[in-house]
Amino acid sequence: MQQSKVLLFFLMASLVCVSCDSNRVFDTYKSVPNKWHKDSVISFKVSPPDSTNAYNLFVNLRNTNDYKYNNLFLIVEMGFPHGKTIKDTLEYRMADPSGKLLGTGLTDIKENKLWYKEEVVFKEKGDYNVNIQHAMRENGKVNGVIELEGITDIGFRIEKLRNE
């Protein structure tokens, strides 16, 4: 009986937290099967709500203890409705100096909210495409990591600015 009350409490608390996320405009995840292949591109189609307000953009990532690197290199490409494309190579810290994985979560799955761009105004009307792939390399090796282990989900998030 006591266990069910505790479980109910945590369920209700998580529902309250999710429903209070008033800054969220777009927040979607896609699963990575077993290993993330270097040629596998995770794509998101985004229809911004307006062309006047500024938004913060994030790459969300879920990883397990199988992730064995201290950092993560990503190639993020944003395609605009009228054909322009912006491509960025980004590096994120994934572990502290002792090797402990960063991120939130009480289990062996950690969630990371990684900055992509801030104060972006979607001036063009229409759909934007965001493509994400990993660009990991091991020290001293020319070829990239073919199959990256430990990444379970890749997400993309758009938030309203907090001062709005």
Description:
This protein is mainly beta and 164 residues long. It is 11% helix and 46% strand. The chain contains 1 helix and 10 strands, in the order H-E-E-E-E-E-E-E-E-E-E. Strands 1-10-4-7 form a 4-stranded antiparallel β-sheet, with no helix packed on it. It has a 4-stranded antiparallel β-sheet with strand order 3-8-5-6, with no helix packed on it. The termini are far apart. Keywords: Lipoprotein, Signal. It comes from Flavivirga algicola.
Summed up:
Pfam families: GldH_lipo (PF14109). This protein is mainly beta and 164 residues long.
Task: Name its key features.
1 helix, four-stranded antiparallel sheet, 164 residues, mainly beta, Jelly Rolls, globular
Going by CATH, the architecture would be Sandwich
Give me the CATH fold name. Answer: Jelly Rolls
The total strand number stands at 10
Taken from the alpha-carbon principal axes, the silhouette is globular
Question: What is the succession of H and E elements?
Answer: HEEEEEEEEEE
Amino- and carboxy-terminal Cα gap = 44 Å
**Order of neighbouring strands in the sheet with most strands:** 1-10-4-7
Using the CA coordinates, give the radius of gyration.
18 Å
Q: Which class in CATH terms?
A: Mainly Beta
Q: Please state the average pLDDT score.
A: 88
Helix % is: 10-25%
